[in-house]
Amino acid sequence: MSALKRLLCLVFLLLAACGGISNKPVPETPKPAVVASGVQAVQKPRPKIALALGGGAARGFAHIGVIKALETNGIIPDIIVGTSAGSVVGALYASGTDAFALQKLAFQLDESALTDWAIFDRGFLKGEALERFVNQQVGGKPIEALKRKFAVVATDLADGQPAVFTSGNVGTAVRASSAVPGVFSPVLIRGREYVDGGLVSPIPVHAARQLGADIVIAVDISARPSGKRNQGSIDLMLDTIAIMGTTIGAYELRDADIIIHPETNGLSAANFQQRHEAIMRGEQAGFAAIPRIREKIAARSQ
Asked: Rounded to two decimals, what is the model's pTM?
């Protein structure tokens, strides 16, 4: 057999052994995935909102109305700071009590439960009843254990400087912040005496900033002088302190992002019977401020 014939036979045998030529399609060469170009936008975290609640004695019920308006619109502050009456409402709110529960508590509140007369020395009232009431409402928790970050502003009687309490007994701090000179006795805390925070920080905006707030909503419940004669000595004393704090308050309010000022003229600082009216006025002022608050939140979130 010639060499050519032997070569052809060998090729034929190899093809037969392989079972013929496959008709399966040849897979395509893998291609890398195409990744869209461009940088993905990073969503900014929601700005920290602080609620700075000012002093004003019985006008402090207006704070509850403001909180109702905020909660109804889904605006929940991260930080609560209170002075005097604002510290009372602020403590209960920071503990987790919502606006409607605050309102119910206000309607049921017996003023006599907060009154503990003292033999006149440095004040008409001891303030111990207020301290007990607040501690009972917050479940005996210290400031640092409350649901929301909370601070209380009082005045150091020795040097006249603001003292910001961010830890310790809630009731004691609130009592100190609410100790109107001549009405309540000064409060002794760790060897120092404290009185009403409204003397140095009527609306605690600066303290709210110090606690890390991006947006400060200040609630001013002070009343402008009406020119009318005061009804009694306590009214006179409270209004005098309010007038003294007007200039200080105006300076501090410059640092607020939003100022809510319920219409409090005609509301006595010493009349608990006007609580319904005070809450209603606070709610009206709160709802009126919602568009401005939303604008601030949107601007800081971009």
From this structure: 0.82
